[in-house]
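Bit of a strange request maybe. I'm writing a small parser for structure token strings and I need a real example to test against, not something I typed by hand. Could someone generate the tokens for this chain?
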Amino acid sequence: MIKICFVCTGNTCRSIMAERIAKKFLKSGNFGDIKVASRGFRANGDNIAENAKAVLKKHHASSANRKSVKLGKIDKNTLYVVMSNFTKVTFDAPKVLSFEDLIGRPIDDPYGQSEEVYEKTYQDLEEGIEKLFEKINLWRGK
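Reply from user aminoacidic:
Good idea to test on real output. This should exercise your parser:
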């Protein structure tokens, strides 16, 4: 079993979008033993951002409401995927990757911006998640 947790600031935009993109991706492949979740460093129970929901729905990923969840205790067996190398170097967990590791650039926070900005965020997240699952397949020797 591989556990992956996407982490951003508030868990209302980037990390929840990443979780839902990954779940969509997992449904289309043979990855039954991977579990994904998302959390926020400063999450306080807010709903997923409206533009995040709109973009997820457009791409046929779950756009259901969900309250943000604050990152709690670090699990040494979980792979944490953060949005930037800046966060990676300050994140105290044994297994951490950043989207910069995966696609060569950070995922900027779209909070409060236009749907077009959220669309770009979706595209970047999707690219990074595809690379992540390619890496997992390489690690597994597939």
